[in-house]
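Workshop exercise sheet. Pairs work together: one partner reads the sequence aloud, the other fills in the structure field after running the prediction. Swap roles for the next sheet.
Pair: D.N. / O.F.
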Amino acid sequence: MYLFLAFLMVPLIEIALFIQVGGLIGLWPTLAIVVLTAIFGTYLVRSQGRLAMGQLRSSFQTLSDPAEPLAHGAMILFAGALLLTPGFFTDAVGFALLMPPVRLAVIRHLRSRITVSHFEMGTTHGQAYHRDPRSARDSHRAQGQGDVIDGDFQDVTPRDEPDRPSGWVKGPD
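Structure field:
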């Protein structure tokens, strides 16, 4: 129901704002504002996105909870979509979501409404967590034993077959 109301109300609000602002300052200044906010918003989304990615990498390196940096990244992505959508209302909401205090307030509100039943990360009882039981690469890196090169191999042990030419070269006649 809320999604339906959002899809109904947002275009109506945008149309009303376009009519009001366009009537007040004219067509070309209104269109210039829409284009400039999209350009400026793209710049802000890129810079805020870099900060969010840095925080996410840091949380992965320190094995801390990545939920908050992921939430910041998702809101920055949503803000970017809003800023690229032509309109004054969506631009205002998009610019608001680019401000870290606003994102923190949204995260706090969402955190109060969401219950996490289970979360597990890192190692358990000194054992490294293996993503793929056939690969020891993750456990070697987790235990600090240096780089491991992962590769495939094929057994080329000769079989008990008579020697025949391979077909690439002409064999003895």
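Discussion prompt: Helices lie at 2-25, 27-61, 67-84, 88-97, 100-113, 137-142. What would you look at next?
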